[in-house]
Amino acid sequence: MGTAVNAPTVPVQVLLSTWNGARWLPALLESLQQQSFQDWQLLVRDDGSTDQTLRILLEWQDQFPEKVAGILADGVNLGSTRSFSRLVEISTAEFLCFCDQDDVWFPEKLEVQYQHLRRLQGEYGEHTPLLVHSDLAVIDQHKEILAVSFWESRDFDLAQDKRAYLLDNVVTGCATAFNRAAAAKAFPAPLQAMQHDRWLALVCSWFGHIRAIPYPLLLYRQHEHNQLGANGGSVRGLEARVQAWGAQAEAFLCRFGDELWAEDYRHVEALAELRHLRGWERRQHILRHRLFKQRVLASLALLLFA
């Protein structure tokens, strides 16, 4: 089942990928209805739900048809990265926002992010990839506050050099908004992309501009099906990350290598090669090419255990 994507009549499209989200969707949809900025439409792709997700979406579409740009439900489970990538590919608006089914947006979220993007676009031009992202307040499945600031709880360093985005990412998809130039530059995401939001941030950091909004604009829900962060603390988890960094770096070179300065190309290439090395040879490679993470302890762990 699917509906055609409506022609762009609004400046903002909210991109929502759903999968068995019936428990959480009503709260999200209510928070969208309460946005202070109302010049937006929802573009949805369902990733093969088997619960009442589609029924909830269709009922909401019947109630607010002017707010729905399209609902795509082909029954295929692509996973979140490919599903969101597909949404970006078929989107039509000038500005886009990723949206997770289990979050709750503050009423000012769209308005604040839209204003920031408009200012950035006025400064750098509409052909420059631009991304804004905010902090998040973390809640549990019962809507109890776990962290007032996601950034502080994870000790993020927001003043990142573009190379830091190869190994680290402080951009959370549901807290982002980006322009058409960013969509065109980054998507479709390659199969080797670690996540859709991480790939987008990497591309924007190298070829455009990223601006952080230093306060939460949504409640970021964590529950048994959405663990906070990946398991990178174990040796096995760290090795999996090294492999993922390398594969993504290789995909980055394949797509953008011709646009990179020689020094930048060598740096990305060094990261792609890291996954093929072991032991002391890998440690020497990390030191020689300065393949460091943003936090000192994380870089030490990489040297000791990768």
UniProtKB/TrEMBL annotation:
<dbReference type="InterPro" id="IPR001173">
    <property type="entry name" value="Glyco_trans_2-like"/>
</dbReference>
<keyword id="KW-0808">Transferase</keyword>
<dbReference type="InterPro" id="IPR029044">
    <property type="entry name" value="Nucleotide-diphossugar_trans"/>
</dbReference>
<protein>
    <submittedName>
        <fullName>Glycosyltransferase</fullName>
        <ecNumber>2.4.-.-</ecNumber>
    </submittedName>
</protein>
<feature type="domain" description="Glycosyltransferase 2-like">
    <location>
        <begin position="14"/>
        <end position="183"/>
    </location>
</feature>
<dbReference type="GO" id="GO:0016757">
    <property type="term" value="F:glycosyltransferase activity"/>
</dbReference>
<dbReference type="Pfam" id="PF00535">
    <property type="entry name" value="Glycos_transf_2"/>
</dbReference>
<keyword id="KW-0328">Glycosyltransferase</keyword>
